[in-house]
Amino acid sequence: MSPATTEPRPRPLRVDAARNQQRIVDAARELFADRGLDITLDDVAERAGVGVGTVYRRFANKRELVAEVFAGHIREFTAATADALAAADPWDGLVQLFEYACRRMATNRGFSEVLLELGEEADRFGCPREEIGPAVAAVMDRARAAGVVQPGIEATDLFALIYMVDSLAEFARPIDSEIWRRYMAITLNGIRAANSPPQPLTVDALSLAEVERAKAAKPGPFLARRR
Q1: Gap between the Cα atoms of 45 and 35, Å rounded
Q2: Rounded mean pLDDT for each run of 10 residues along the chain, 227 residues in total
Q3: Per residue in 90-128, is it b (16+ CB within 10 Å) or e — as a string?
Q4: Is 147 left (phi over 0), alpha (psi -120 to 50) or beta?
Q5: Residue 48: CB atoms within 10 Å
Q6: What H or E segment, with its residue span, contains residue 170?
Q7: Is 175 helix (H, G, I), strand (E, B) or coil?
Q8: What share of the chain is helix, strand, coil (3-state, %, to 5)?
Q9: Three-state DSSP class for 192?
């Protein structure tokens, strides 16, 4: 009998090891959302309530941990895209996906940094944007074919508009963490066709005094990119 050529299956984690790994990933997910990628594995260990050595046994470096966390985000984004494609009305599906993306970007600093600020380095963290691009394009193509968006609007425009809403959300977050909803609605109203229902403005505009407070809270120039 010839020797087996297949590699042995990896041994499953013990229950306690699996539990610790999930605690580490959950802690990293929370920290990346709150503070972006500028955290350490020591920070993750403290949040997870485990020793630093436990973190390093499961993840050799921060890059591996980022990849693990954001692989989950990509799966969730892909699922949201599938839901948008399944919507009976193409405009409703587009609104649904745009709202999901804007909410995720506005409330998860790390996700925003990986997708928008790291450029081509996003792939280095195991989050290839090509997994998202075709799916978003399918939602936009469906909406365009149905005539519910203005002619000439492309899927790549959607990414730029999401970034615009995210930038405004970042600017105004110290004053109103939900202001992204207002700019999301204004943006959607700007690309919709005449036969598509307008999005209501459910969040009030900032006052001049609030704009000044938001500007004062930012150390750099207006709408500077996060670092």
Answers
A1: 15
A2: 50 66 89 85 90 87 84 84 95 95 84 62 54 84 94 88 86 86 94 91 89 79 45
A3: bbebbbbbbbbbbbbbbbbbbbbbbbbbeeeebeebbbe
A4: left
A5: 21
A6: helix 155-172
A7: coil
A8: 65, 0, 35
A9: strand
Residue 38 CA: distances (Å) to CA of 66, 138, 223 = 11, 34, 19
For the chain, how far is it from start to end, CA to CA, in angstroms? 60
| Ramachandran assignment for 203, one of left (phi > 0), alpha (psi -120 to 50 degrees), beta (any other) | beta
Phi, psi (rounded to 5 degrees) for 192: -75, 150
* pLDDT, position 225: 45
Prediction pTM value: 0.74
Q: Which amino acid is at 132?
A: I
* The token pair that represents 129 in the structure block: 């944007």
User: And the tokens for 224?
Assistant: 């500077």
* CA gyration radius, the chain: 21
Predicted pLDDT at 223: 45
Using an 8 Å Cβ cutoff, are 59 and 24 in contact? yes
In DSSP terms, 192 is beta-bridged to 149
Q: To the nearest 10°, the Cα dihedral for 2, 7, 12, 18?
A: 170
Name the burial class of residue 147, with classes exposed (0-12), middle (13-18) and buried (19+) by CB atoms within 10 angstroms of its CB: middle
Token couple for 218? 């930012």
Contacts of 199 (CB under 8 A, 6+ apart): 95, 184, 185, 186, 188, 189, 192
